[in-house]
Amino acid sequence: MEWFDKISEFMEGLPEWLQAHPRYGYLIVAGILLLWLVGIVCGWRWTYSRPGSWEGNFWLGTLGERSYRFWLGLIVAAATGCALLLFFVTG
Predict the structure, then answer these.
(1) How many domains does the chain have?
(2) Which residue, of 43, 66, 73, 75, has the fewest CB within 10 Å?
(3) Would you give per-residue pLDDT tens digits along the chain (91 residues)?
(4) Residue 77: which domain range?
(5) Is there a domain that residue 56 lies in?
(6) Where are the alpha helices (DSSP H) in the chain?
(7) How far apart are CA 31 and CA 35, in angstroms?
(8) Looking at the domain assignment, is residue 85 inside a domain?
C-alpha cells in the first residue's frame, strides 16, 4: 500500500510545514468554510441543523429553514472572505 505510506508521510510532515508557513492555515480554513458554504447552498441538512445547540435550533425555528440557511450562508461567506483576505495580506 504505497499510496497509504505517501499519505501517512505527508500527514506526519504537515504540522512542521504549517509552522514554517503559517499563512497557509488561512487557506485551509477558507477551504473548510467553502465546503460548509456549498453544503448550505445545496441544502445538506448536516450543515445547518444543530441537534445539541439550543441557540441554533431557536434561530432555525424562528426564521424558518430557508431564511436560516440564507443568513448562515451569508455569515459563512463573509468568514471565508476574511480568511482569504488574511491569506493574501499576510503574504
Answers:
(1) 1
(2) 66
(3) 889 999 999 889 888 988 998 999 999 999 999 999 999 999 999 988 877 788 888 998 999 999 999 999 999 999 999 999 999 999 7
(4) 23-89
(5) yes
(6) 2-20, 24-42, 54-63, 65-89
(7) 6
(8) yes
